[in-house]
Known about the structure:
Layout: H1 3-16, H2 20-39, E1 45-49, E2 56-65, E3 74-76, H3 77-83, E4 92-96, H4 102-131, E5 137-146, E6 149-153, E7 158-161, E8 177-186, E9 193-197, H5 201-211, H6 213-216, E10 221-228, E11 232-238, H7 246-251, H8 256-264, E12 269-274, H9 279-286, E13 294-298, E14 303-308, H10 313-317, H11 322-331, E15 334-339, H12 340-345, H13 354-361, H14 363-372, H15 376-386, H16 388-399, H17 406-413, H18 416-427
Parallel strand pairs: 2-3, 7-9, 11-12, 14-15
Antiparallel strand pairs: 1-2, 2-4, 5-6, 5-8, 6-7, 8-9, 10-11, 13-14
Helix pairs in contact: 2-4, 5-8, 9-11, 16-17
Amino acid sequence: MNLEFLEALNDLGKEKGIDTDIIVEAIEAALISAYKKNFGSLQNVKVQIDKTTGEFKVYARKEVVEEVFNKNTEITLEDARKIYAGSNYGDIVDVEVTPRNFGRIAAQTAKQVVVQRIREAERGIIYSEFSNKENDIVTGTIQRIENKNYYIDLGKIEAVLTPAEQIAGEEYKVFDRIRTYIVEVKKSSKGPQIMVSRTHPGLLKRLFEMEVPEIQDGIVEIKSVAREAGARSKIAVYSADSEVDCIGACVGPKGSRVQAVVNELRGEKIDIVQWSKNISEYIASALSPSKVVDVAVFEDEKKARVIVPDNQLSLAIGKEGQNARLAAKLTGWKIDIKSESQAQELGIEYQSDYYDDYEDEYDDYDDSYDDYDENYDDEYDDEYDDNYDEYDDEYDDNYDEYDEEYEDYDEEYADQEYVEEYLEKRDE
């Protein structure tokens, strides 16, 4: 080995992005393996490579003893002091045992070991790089599609987007660029495996963090995210600065910021609501775009009873219970929704002026949000009016897990005459 060898190591390190010291350690380990294999030595040996000249030497490590019983591992004090004058009993002395023809043998035997160690070092670097990117967004290119799995080229490695992590209805072709969320990075015998997702709530959160400077600066904070990928999502935002409009910051000028996120998620609807320490206000906000008359909180059961206007009932619940389900996920509370008529029939007392204060507080937000989707409420109402009859018939099956108390409620409002009466009143 010589200076040309060291230069080759430096070039290899730069090409592979590996520290030269790691390569040198791999070669030293390979030379020890080659020495023991070819010379049948049971000695405790080590190899040192001079990083200045490129020369290497093999040393046997021997203990200084009074009487030698094993010449491979022991040495007398007299012989030890010929090597190192300050040797004493019990010390370990390195004795050079480099064979004359070791260079050729070492090169042949160590080749595979060196290659393997370099490969392992590369895998370790890739694992460290991407493990630090867990819970972050990466952009890649679809490399191939196998068994409905998308294999995404991230440069140094491939990531896998499984069917379970794909948004229903989304389709990609080979060479399409795609943004995904890294869910997990794990080691395997074939190298690091990177699992990515398009459905994870973290994807929505990171997209807003990238689009909204106020979130990046810590002025606005995303408190909670609830998502049904491909359909609708809700995020709760908060700012400690009372002068900051956190919802307006996320919506952006003329809805530009939220629209960028919607476009990335291919049309997924997003409700941005105000987080509050007051759980009643928070739940009322979470049921947006529905209006709320009153919220009664039962902390022992972590349950809330919400009263809404009769003409807002379908909007509050949502198609197949989607709006109520997302609100429950967002707040972490179980929500029981009742109309004003039903509340009166059940003798439930509530504050009818609750919504007046709430509405005044969010007037500014409504104005700015209109720019994002000026037809949002009309589209939302029409969607639920068209599907209301079907929703009433199927409500028990789809919503039992959310709240068993809705069974009685569904039976009451499944009556077709009520629906027709409700639609007539609304049209008036």
